[in-house]
Task: structure prediction
Amino acid sequence: MSGRRRAYPTTEELRIWRDFIETAQALRTELAARLQKDSSLSPGDYATLLALSEADGGRLRPSALALTLGWERSRLSHQLGRMERRGLVRREECATDSRGAEVVLTDEGARAFRAAALPHLLAIRELFVAQLTPEQITAVGDAVKALAPGRARGGTAEHGPPVVP
Result:
C-alpha cells in the first residue's frame, strides 16, 4: 500500500475491539448484578438517583435528566414511573414554568442512593481499578478522552454521563 489508510480494521485491531466490547459488557453485567443484590437498585435507578443527587435542589426537568443520562424521553418516562411507584422520585410542577414538570429526588430516593453508593464504588475498585496498574489507568483515561468527542451521549464535557454499570 502506498501510504493510504486501510478502509477497514486489521485483524489485530478487530481482536482488540472485540476484547474491549466483551470485557466492558462483562464488567457492566457483574456491576449490575452486585448493585441489584446489594441495594435492590437497577443500573437505571442508580444512574437516575446519581444525576438527581448532583442536581441543584435534587431536581431536574425531564428533558435535562434525559440528556444527562443519554436516554430517550420514552425510556426515561418508563424508568421514572417504576421509581415513582417505589417512592424514590416524584414529579412536581415546575416552579419557574407552569407548563412543565420537574423530577425530584425524594428522601427515600436519597437514602437508597447513599446506601448503594459505597458498595457500588467498592465493586468498581475491585473489578476495575484494582486490576490495573496506575499506568494502565492513565492509558484507559487517555483512550476514553480520545473517544469522547465521537460519543453521541448526554453529560458535560467535564463530567460525562453518570458512573453506572
